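User: Here's a structure from my thesis project, written as structure tokens. My advisor, Dr. K., wants to see whether a designed sequence matches the one we expressed. Can you design one independently, without my sequence as a hint?
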């Protein structure tokens, strides 16, 4: 079999962080002879060379190249590319890792769509990744019809023939943004790019010691000199006009405007802030025409205008104002439907320093309430900044994030945007053509999301584990996510319950996080929350009719489900199991099971509920009830708290005077 994919990994002193990368490469679903890994050791001095040599000796498809240190990752990637024998080349950093099926899925998707570049869905652990790009699969993407330019890291799959044909290689030496130059050229020369969004292929990781190269503070002069090289590529391969402005806008937004906003800017030392501002202003005035900033969101246009008009002090004031803006959400409903989907009702809005963020209608148009005087506002307008509040274009999303991997997936949402008046309004409360009269208002988003556990991960099922739920608000140039659930309607606590889902069945249980009360999903009993939900059951809740034990269970079920009961003797003896059914009932489900009275007679037993578990291979996940059962010789059962039954079953200690005699006997006294 020919080599389908060559994985190139530049390596420099990763220490133990390389182990996850190695393990993920060894777990790939492609056969070993269908892919190869090429580790290019760039002069490591931490024991990594010996580790890689042992790896290569044990696995024929793992290769190592040792070289003198080059200062950055460009040369190691080029060396690996030249050595690659695969049809495609995949670049991976030594402190990141791949999904187990990443190479196989990306290769098949690229071949099926005739792609020169395959972009696999990324998850960021402590690092940002582009969310909008991965909302849906994009089999025929380009820089004009998809936000490809938002993803300029090299962790993608490239057709080797394509790289050779256009002589595309990384810039070498100790420098920044070599991947931006590489990707800009590749995107603009590619005949087709395929974006795979329904499987997490690449896990982009921030090291615990924060020593990733991309997290080190940079020299602004050198950094923006390198950034100009990426702009040069765009200038060489595009004509002046809309597309070039759109591509330039990515660097203006991400590498310049966003660096000068809110807490990200304020956290920098003051002298470094000014140095950064001056270098950014030089690039903007030199390379960015008016059409570039015009496509930014309003709040970003404000920052861009403050840059071009050289208003550093106003920029700092604006950053302090933006730093106080936070998203907030309220959970209003949580219920399962008959299709086994979890419906989530919520409201969300921005807050400023803990109060609703105010907007203002002026002349029938919504405006941002900016922290500037009239003179500065006039300067912004003259610079072309649009301070209109684009509230009608606001969006709200519900995102589930796997806690262990940080993989994120948007869920289907229907929402409305409301302008809620604040303070005095016009005489009749509305303006012309049904619009609100001049005055302040809040922007409130009301949404209903649908979370199907079997399709929630881009068409696939939620994996076993913990999934945290976030609300993301996108409006006016802000995109901010927040955990929610701690603020909720009283009815939500009453309606919250788990449900069995999938085949084989497993429990999906919404619950509140410890200490914070936010909404998370426990998939396949990753926590003990099922035990907490069953804990309130008391003796009065269990009944026996026609020799069948029945009691309510706080689970949703759309029909009859299978479960198990286990009776464990308080004293000696083996446990007894009984097949049970879960059927819809008031406030959840009713569990019913035969009570094996003859086998339980004259015994004292505790009771466990067995919930189906897919990750246990169909074996149940047992959860003890706080209620036990006594069965008399005639088969009649009575229920008592399990704790009292176990206490009464303990052997009684001898009287103290007898114990004293026994101790004296053995001590020879």
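Assistant: Designed independently from the structure alone:
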């Amino acid at each position: 079999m020919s080599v389908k994919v060559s994985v190139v990994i530049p390596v420099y002193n990763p220490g133990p962080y390389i182990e996850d990368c190695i393990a993920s490469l060894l777990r790939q679903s492609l056969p070993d002879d269908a892919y190869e890994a090429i580790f290019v050791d760039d002069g490591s001095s931490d024991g990594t060379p010996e580790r890689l040599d042992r790896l290569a000796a044990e696995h024929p498809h793992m290769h190592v190249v040792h070289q003198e240190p080059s200062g950055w990752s460009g040369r190691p990637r080029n060396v690996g590319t030249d050595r690659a024998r695969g049809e495609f080349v995949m670049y991976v950093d030594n402190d990141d890792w791949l999904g187990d099926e990443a190479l196989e899925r990306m290769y098949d998707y690229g071949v099926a769509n005739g792609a020169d570049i395959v972009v696999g869905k990324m998850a960021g652990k402590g690092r940002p990744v582009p969310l909008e790009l991965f909302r849906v699969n994009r089999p025929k993407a380009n820089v004009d019809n998809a936000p490809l330019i938002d993803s300029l890291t090299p962790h993608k799959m490239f057709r080797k023939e394509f790289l050779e044909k256009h002589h595309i290689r990384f810039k070498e030496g100790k420098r920044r943004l070599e991947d931006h130059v590489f990707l800009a050229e590749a995107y603009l020369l590619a005949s087709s790019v395929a974006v795979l969004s329904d499987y997490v292929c690449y896990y982009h990781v921030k090291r615990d010691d924060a020593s990733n190269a991309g997290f080190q503070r940079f020299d602004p002069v050198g950094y923006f000199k390198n950034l100009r090289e990426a702009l040069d590529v765009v200038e060489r391969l595009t004509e002046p006009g809309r597309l070039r402005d759109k591509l330039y806008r990515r660097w203006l937004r991400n590498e310049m405007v966003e660096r000068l906003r809110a807490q990200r800017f304020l956290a920098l030392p003051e002298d470094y802030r000014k140095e950064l501002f001056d270098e950014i202003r030089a690039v903007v005035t030199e390379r960015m025409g008016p059409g570039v900033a015009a496509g930014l969101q309003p709040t970003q246009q404000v920052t861009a205008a403050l840059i071009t008009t050289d208003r550093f002090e106003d920029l700092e004031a604006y950053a302090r104002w933006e730093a106080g803006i936070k998203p907030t959400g309220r959970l209003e409903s949580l219920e399962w439907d008959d299709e086994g989907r979890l419906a989530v009702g919520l409201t969300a809005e921005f807050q400023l320093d803990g109060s609703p963020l105010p907007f203002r209608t002026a002349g029938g148009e919504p405006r941002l309430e900016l922290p500037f005087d009239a003179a500065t506002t006039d300067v912004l307008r003259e610079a072309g900044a649009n301070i209109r509040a684009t509230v009608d274009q606001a969006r709200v999303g519900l995102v589930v994030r796997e806690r262990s991997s940080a993989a994120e997936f948007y869920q289907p949402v229907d929402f409305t945007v409301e302008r809620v008046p604040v303070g005095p309004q016009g005489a009749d409360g509305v303006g012309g053509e049904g619009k609100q009269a001049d005055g302040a208002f809040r922007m409130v988003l009301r949404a209903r999301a649908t979370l199907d556990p079997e399709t929630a991960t881009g068409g696939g099922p939620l994996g076993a584990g913990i999934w945290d739920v976030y609300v993301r608000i996108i409006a006016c140039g802000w995109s901010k996510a927040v955990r929610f659930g701690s603020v909720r309607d009283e009815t939500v606590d009453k309606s919250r319950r788990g449900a069995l889902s999938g085949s084989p069945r497993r429990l999906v249980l919404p619950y509140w996080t410890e200490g914070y009360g936010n909404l998370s999903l426990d998939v396949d009993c990753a926590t003990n929350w099922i035990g907490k939900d069953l804990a309130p059951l008391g003796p009065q809740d269990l009944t026996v009719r026609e020799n069948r034990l029945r009691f309510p269970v706080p689970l949703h079920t759309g029909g009859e489900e299978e479960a198990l009961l286990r009776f464990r003797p308080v004293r000696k003896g083996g446990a007894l199991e009984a097949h049970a059914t879960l059927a819809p009932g008031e406030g959840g489900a009713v569990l019913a099971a035969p009570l094996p009275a003859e086998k339980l007679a004259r015994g004292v037993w505790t009771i466990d509920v067995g919930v189906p578990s897919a990750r246990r291979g169909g074996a149940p996940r047992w959860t003890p009830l706080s209620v036990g059962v006594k069965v008399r010789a005639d088969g009649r059962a009575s229920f008592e708290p399990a704790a009292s039954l176990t206490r009464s079953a303990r052997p009684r200690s001898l009287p103290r005077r007898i114990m004293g005699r026994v101790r004296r006997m053995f001590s020879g006294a």
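When you compare it with your expressed construct, this may help: The first helix runs from residue 18 to 26.
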